[in-house]
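Hi all, posting the design record for the shared folder.

TITLE: backbone redesign
STEP: 1 of 1
STRUCTURE INPUT:
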């Protein structure tokens, strides 16, 4: 096999209370990438469609993660990468992670799968760091492992796969403004009150338990973020109205997707997801902000080969 086409999915990180540690994978939106083995050594990005991104491998997250893997694997050949970018950069649904994951997943397949999923996460984190100025794996891990993931530790890297309740659907609304992850991180406080920390780790623990037991009511009561959302929500126009509307229409929870501006809701069943999507659409339709809405089942498989 000399080339491979893959679908690299969008993801939701943080999942309200799990800043930098929790994430889940979407299946209705993602990038397509083609990876091709070449005699020419090194990594060469030969095509980018959809969004304006750098072709130099050292400046492109897909290139940087691929170079990290090449430095470890040291093959005597190289790879070309084509990127068909559907996920808008700065959208909050793991655009840079999808690129970073796509190249290392594809190259690993063409090398005969020498690396496991945790090692792929490690290489992809090097690319993600180019975009966010910080190594974190909460978008990368769900794209690679599928479903819900918990980043137990970055150093050493340890990823825990969590179960996905069957009837869980996500609604994503993406107001078409760009929020840079690095800037959205810079405004967060370095210290938090003990009482907020207690509330937050209680919610993370109960959310993990809710996923294990398919306890949708507990899941709903756990999807609360008292640490990060209060600081970031001001960056997202109409966030409070969107959240209140989602909850009033039966969403289990609603919060900022990654570092924003996308907003995610988790819903019980597709019917409720449709209802929540319609209700939030009504909120944004009354503004002059362009937006996109996606409904997605939780993608329990993660990144996949399409050809
Ligand atoms: N955990 C990250 C953040 C996700 O919220 O900044 C975005 O990369």
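Okay, here is what came back for every position:
SEQUENCE:
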């Amino acid at each position: 096999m000399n080339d491979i086409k893959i679908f690299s999915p969008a993801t939701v990180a943080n999942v309200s209370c799990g800043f930098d540690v929790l994430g889940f994978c979407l299946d209705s939106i993602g990038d397509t990438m083609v990876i091709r083995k070449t005699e020419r050594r090194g990594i060469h990005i030969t095509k980018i469609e959809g969004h304006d991104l750098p072709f130099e491998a050292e400046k492109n997250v897909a290139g940087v993660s691929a170079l990290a893997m090449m430095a470890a694997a040291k093959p005597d050949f190289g790879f070309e990468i084509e990127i068909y970018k559907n996920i808008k950069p700065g959208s909050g649904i793991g655009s840079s992670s999808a690129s970073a994951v796509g190249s290392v997943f594809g190259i690993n397949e063409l090398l005969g799968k020498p690396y496991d999923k945790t090692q792929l996460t490690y290489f992809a984190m090097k690319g993600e760091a180019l975009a966010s100025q910080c190594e974190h794996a909460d978008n990368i891990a769900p794209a690679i492992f599928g479903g819900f993931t918990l980043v137990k530790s970055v150093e050493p890297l340890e990823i825990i796969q969590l179960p996905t309740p069957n009837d869980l659907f996500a609604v994503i609304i993406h107001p078409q403004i760009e929020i840079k992850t690095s800037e959205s991180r810079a405004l967060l406080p370095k210290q938090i009150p003990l009482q907020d920390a207690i509330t937050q780790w209680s919610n993370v623990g109960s959310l993990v338990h809710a996923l294990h037991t398919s306890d949708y009511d507990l899941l709903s009561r756990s999807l609360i973020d008292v640490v990060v959302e209060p600081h970031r929500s001001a960056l997202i126009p109409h966030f409070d109205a969107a959240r209140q509307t989602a909850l009033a229409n039966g969403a289990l929870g609603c919060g900022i997707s990654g570092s924003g501006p996308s907003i995610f809701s988790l819903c019980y069943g597709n019917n409720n997801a449709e209802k929540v999507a319609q209700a939030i659409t009504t909120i944004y339709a009354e503004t002059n902000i362009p937006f996109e809405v996606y409904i997605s089942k939780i993608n329990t498989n993660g990144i996949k080969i399409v050809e």
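COMMENT: The two ends are 11 Å apart (CA to CA).
Let me know if anyone wants the other runs.
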